Amino acid sequence: MSVFPRPALVGLPGDRTAAREIASSAVTTLSAVLVLFALLAPKDLDGLGSEAFVRLPVEALLGVGLVLVLRDGARRIVAVSAGAVLGLLTVVKAIDIGFGLALNRRFDPVFDWGVLGNGVDLLGTSIGRAGAIASFLGLTLLAVVVIVLMGLATLRLSRVVVGRRTASTRVTAVLGVVWIGCAVSGAQLAPGQPFASRSAAAFAYEDLRQVRAGIRDREAFAAEVAADSFRDTPSSGLLNALRGKDVLFTFIESYGRVAVQDSDIAPKVGAVLDAGTARLKSAGYGSRSAFLTSPTTSAGSWLAHSTFQSGVWVDSQHRYDDFVKTDRFTLGGAFKRAGWQTVGVVPAHTEDWPEGKVYGYDRYYDSRTIGYHGPPFSYATMPDQFTLSAFQRAERAREHPPLMAEIDLVTSHWPWTPLPRLVDWTAVGDGSVYNPMPSQGKTPDEVFTDPAKVRGAYGDSIAYSLNSLISYVETYGDDDLVLVFLGDHQPNPIVAGAGADRDVPISVVTRDKAVLDKVAGWDWQDGLHPDRNAPVSRMDTFRDRFLTTFAH
After folding, report:
1. Could you tell me the maximum CA-CA distance found in the chain, to the nearest angstrom?
2. Residue 424 and residue 520 in one domain
3. Helical residues (DSSP H) of 287-402, grouped into ranges
4. Is 50 exceeded by the pLDDT of residue 82?
5. 111 and 247 assigned to the same domain
6. Of 297, 261, 283, 280, whose CA–CA distance to 528 is shortest?
7. Pfam families from the entry (predicted)?
8. What angle do CA 377, 379, 384 make, to 5 degrees?
9. How many domains does the chain have?
10. Per the domain annotation, does 8 fall within a domain?
11. Are residues 164 and 54 in the same domain?
12. Of 287, 251, 262, whose CA–CA distance to 531 is shortest?
């Protein structure tokens, strides 16, 4: 037994009460910050400045007013529901920012969920499939946490409002008058940032309009697909001016106007095009070039391919999904009806592609069937030179009927590094010659620390793809070759810049003067290098113009 008296536990109940009050205040403050952030956060990075958050959101005032007039049971349901909706809007805003950076457009909340899967595949080329899936699952969990926390935050704030009913009513009334005055006067702390904010409601309304417009667009698109003046054209009325020719439509990934005009990339790529024009001319080839406006930008190559082939404007995922279920008359279908053998070469595909049946290819090569045994180059499953070499060996090197082929070249796909080098065509083989090259190039991590390096890598990749094509024509071209090559879309805003147009270069190359004379009626410019005065037309006009021009 101690001989010393036990000290009194003085002040503990009060200390605990004070601690609880501090914690309660902190939770309330964090809840208010979270809700205000969700209400005021912009939908793009351009508006993400401190001034965006020094505004008065009308949605908060209306929410407080609603809470004050509801009974407890209804109040809790409305508070949690409103918070969940606000959390969902916050998630969609974050996705919008991502879409703006990667695709230079807004996220479609109805039809774009499948694009997120493509994003996982693309991320997998940089960090591996397992890492990409883990990242996606982590972001999904984060989105769920945001929605749950927002619901809890609005419930917390609703309790605070009801607990201080008189003060809440007075403050809301005063702020309501302030909001009306600022709205009428147009007061703003920064351009485009009115102090009287209603951005959350406007964002939700825009999304609802987008949903409604997307649903209505399906009917309009069905009508566009059905209206086809070439659908019933007999073989005798198709492509007679190209009889006996091998016609290759070749897409160069991300080959956009920025590669040839008004950028620090253009001099390098322009030099390749100018030299290529001279090289081909010395080999007897003529060429003409112009621009097409793509239905997409930054990504979504399949939208450009389907627009080009079908003659209808496929500018969204839901239009593409509907298109591949139709029997729309494509360029591939036209050549097939006219007696050509039709071939698709899509090295980016690593899985089955049942949608491709809409193009009517007789034969189809993907990454699994083209015979490549070399290394990938980031996203690119194989170098463009190998793709062209494999196509040549499989189709044009032997006796064959006239061929029509769409060939997709993917070396210039983001992230544009590391790059392969051109080798002697006789050394291409099964692609094992490329084995040392990926480790000899720069990694994406090295390049993406500097925007200038990113643009440089993009320019290098486009130069490689163009040189591959030019060298292919020099090596394997003949009097019966007609090559049409073009870009599918502009690169992402890191390279093309925010607000860039959607124009892509297109060129026709052939030795046959009669073919070039036909194209002369399009007013395209001589050579491979279109300048700022080159004509521009929408990509969906190409099919009809091509079929009309070469019908006779």
Report:
1. 118
2. yes
3. 301-310, 317-323, 331-337, 384-391
4. yes
5. no
6. 280
7. Sulfatase (PF00884)
8. 60
9. 2
10. no
11. yes
12. 262
